[in-house]
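Hi C.,

You asked whether I'd gotten around to modeling the 421-residue construct. I have! Everything is below, sequence then structure, no commentary in between.
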Amino acid sequence: MDRRTFNTALAGITATSLFGCATTAGGNNKRVVLYQGVGNQLRPFDVDVENATLTPRPALAMPSNIQYVWPHPSRRYLYVSTSDSASGNATVAGKLHRLCAVRVGADGDLQMHGDAQALTARPIHNSVDASGSYALTAYNNPSSLTVHRINADGTLGALVAQPARLDSGIFAHQILTSPSNRAVYFPTRGNNPENGKGEDPGAMKIYNFKDGVLAPGASVAVGGRGGLGYGPRHLDFHRTQPWVYVSVERQNQLHMHRMQGDSIVAEPAFIKTTLAAKQDEHLPQSAGPIHVHPNGRFVYVSNRANSTVEFNGKQVFRGGQNSIAVYSIDPASGEPTLVQNADPRSYHVRTFSIDPSGRLLIAASIVDMSVREGNEVRHVPAALSVFRIGADGRLDFVRKYDVELGGKFQWWAGLLELPAA
């Protein structure tokens, strides 16, 4: 894709950026709300960007546990995927899987909007295309996807029939339209070998996309081993350049690909570690979500570890790296260079988000953790960790808000700039 063609696609990129890396239209005086999902409760927080503070407001109850949330390009509706299933490859399939439309009020308050659509399995990610006409949902077990129409009033419509032989890989983790809105990117993570079962290969599936219908496109498996040793989780697009940044979960890596039309060059231009130091291979460790800063000069990836070991009758943190990896982006080549690993002072950041002005990053950890300190054990609650973003992209920890999970998970949180009244 040449520069001129790519720039014509940038209108679509704001739709893929409303949560996480926010909108490019944001300004210092815009009103910003953080939405947080704990269990089935979707809660708004008023955000004071200047003072880096959050003020909670009443939550909206969803049909089951919130998995992911994505806004309509108008920012007047949210699309919320929910499930009562267990996570990952667990055998608890659950029975209540839904995709819901939620209306966003002028002050950020929430209200159910139309009928929820029943889904057949646990959704792991969902998004909306650049036109605001289609809601796309990814499922991890088994790996699959669906597309629903979005009606003119923002309510959810009928399923769009898809080709019967669409290759959806193993353990999908994200579904996202390209800047042109002519392709859908579908990272499939695969699985590490476990309990005598061999490794499942990963791949980046890229489909052609038109009128809500997907058609087979490229299948990218980095490394030349058919997807073995390759576990992509999430990706994000650069705002002004034809560059794609991919968080590779199972290898704790950041890959940068150059775009080629609506697809990508198969082998990355750059491969970087997300870790601050070499990891003990016996400690489970994985990379998480990824977001490019709104100004295009930095990219962020989370590192996650939350395995435990018994100590004095309690399960305590076994070890590993929990951080937000910060990279500067070379403006000429797109090469990312690791400049910081910032401590969120919590464990297993599953989602994080950047405010529209690019001044705050808020990270959401999914679980509580017991941590050994000498012969004592300290309880560390799940949290919303608030960082200021410096002019050099580095993160400065400001504060964290402990989150009472009540036996649930904090699966998701994201910042949204409210539309003008």
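If it helps when you're writing up: The helical segments are 3-8, 10-13.

Thanks,
B.
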